[in-house]
Design brief:
By secondary structure, this protein is α+β, with helices and mostly antiparallel strands. 51% of the residues lie in helices and 15% in strands. A hairpin with a 7-residue loop joins strand 4 (167-173) and strand 5. Helix 4 (69-80) packs antiparallel against helix 5 (84-103), helix 7 (231-267) runs parallel beside helix 9 (313-338) and helix 9 (313-338) runs antiparallel to helix 10 (349-359). The chain is globular. Belongs to the acyl-CoA dehydrogenase family. This is Acyl-CoA dehydrogenase family protein. GO terms for molecular function: acyl-CoA dehydrogenase activity; flavin adenine dinucleotide binding.
Length: 379
Amino acid sequence: MPVDRMLPTPEARDLIELTREIADKVLEPHVVEYERRERYPAEAFRALGAAGLLSLPYPEEFGGGGQPYEVYLQVLEELAARWAAVAVAVSVHSLSCHPLFAFGSDEQRRRWLPEMLGGSMIGAYSLSEPHAGSDAAALRCRAVATADGYRITGSKAWITNGGKADYYTLFARTGEGSRGVSCFLVPADTAGLSFGKPEAKMGLRAVPTTTAAYDDAPISAERLIGEPGQGLSIAFSALDSGRLGIAAVATGLAQRALDDAVAYAREREAFGKHIIDHQGLGFVLADMAAAVDSARATYLDAARRRDAGLPYSRQASVAKLVATDAAMKVTTDAVQVFGGYGYTQDFPVERYMREAKVMQIFEGTNQIQRLVIARGLAG
């Protein structure tokens, strides 16, 4: 059942309708097969790129869609309601463009952003390492300065679109301490860059998550984004936006689980009436609906603060925490509504539940979000 959205402009309403049309035509028919076979949906990304849906929150002067963040996130939610893995990859692509847009020089933005936002390229974000997930300051991947740039050596982990992306926004150590990390824009064809076998994941199987190895890989000095040592502040700035992306994806997944559960409860009968008419199950569905609506409200509040130029870091963490916890609860309850059928692969709710779990983990675990919120309260 389509969500009755409050959108700021007629253009935004048309964009949501376009997104629904493309998602129903391009994503919905293929999600089950591609997820089961772990097949990369390159055609889906090409279709989204051709429609301008890969660059929505960036200015038109660089090839973006010029849309406010509150509209972009609702587009992500619509995509996630059909195919969560694709929506996550779109969110990561947008995240990977943020450092160049926000911290790159005018020359760097003019040179690379139009191609990155043009719809034919997909990006990846490369921050985590095998031993350093939530602790970004513990990075060991190192970029050593040379006469004409840098040589990068080390490994990265948990890269969405790893081995498939056209470029990687990489964070590597150029000095010591928390101010010794720098940001680089790395082309996929860089010599000395290789990728591991995709992780065998619980969910989101159609989009690979891999490790990356840098073996004395040369990077020109012009691909340093921002100043040397500015990497962690760049990374954390991008993550605020990325957390909102995951909050929107989680909300879309939860909305789909709710819609499927309601449809099933309207059809299934027990004790002489549809199961939705039994108060016990009706209350479960009501709680699911309340959780989805609350998740949407939190991410939209943070997005509107971002669009208004207000501080939104704490609100982004709240949105990520609330929305992903809601998605886990709602998808689990959806399996319960379906009963034994929900535990089979004949119905998609078991996939929704598997997909929801990782959303409590990536872009900063929900324990990290609580830490960010608590520190914000402490001033």
